[in-house]
Amino acid sequence: MGKVIVILWMLFALYMLVMVAMIADLWSGVRKARKLGIAASSYGFKRTVDKAAKYYNLMIALTVIDAMHMAATWYLEEYYQYHLPMFPFITLLGAICIGLIEIKSIYEKAEDKVRIDNVAALAKQIIVHRDSMNEIANAVGEYMKKDNNEKEKEEK
Question: What is the three-class DSSP state of 137?
Fold first, then answer.
């Protein structure tokens, strides 16, 4: 029983560390947006919530796999005297990968994220106005103006 409690505490710690990494990325993103003068929007926060849901769905699936592994390990230890480590290896590996993704996100340049958002906004305008070539041309023209203005700011 003592092993199970220790494993549960380790899993709790892994889940909390993933949350800390996501909060650090959120904080970094908010700081980058303020630096660029971009107002925080519910869209950005919604993306963070969606990301958290995806990460925790993955973590739960990995924990289920670890639970199967640990049940087999317990069975072998209890009935056949095999002594294998009872440790959530797969969940740990998943948490490390998520942490690395979040670190990469924290160190991405804010300007690169703005460009990606601008392209996404352009794609949305094209889809919305797919029947009007004039509106699409206007949206592309606005995008090009924004892109040129950003490049000029970078050069200064």
Answer: helix
**What dihedral angle (degrees, nearest 10) is formed by the CA atoms of 54, 60, 63, 64?**
-120
* Locus of tokens 């993306």: 47
How far apart are the C-alpha atoms of 55 and 20, rounded to whole Å?
12
Q: Domain check: are 34 and 18 in the same one? A: yes
Task: Enter the pTM of the model.
Answer: 0.70
- The count of domains in the chain is 2
Residue 136 has pLDDT above 90, yes or no: no
The number of angstroms, rounded, from the C-alpha of 1 to the middle of its chain's C-alpha atoms is 35
Q: What local confidence, expressed as pLDDT, does residue 5 receive?
A: 94
- pLDDT at residue 131 greater than cutoff 80: no
Same domain, yes or no: 29 and 98: yes
Residue 14 corresponds to which tokens in the numbers above? 């892994």
Domain that holds residue 9: 1-108
Q: How far apart are CA 133 and CA 106, in angstroms?
A: 38
60 and 38 fall within a common domain:
yes
Separation of alpha carbons 107 and 103, rounded Å: 6
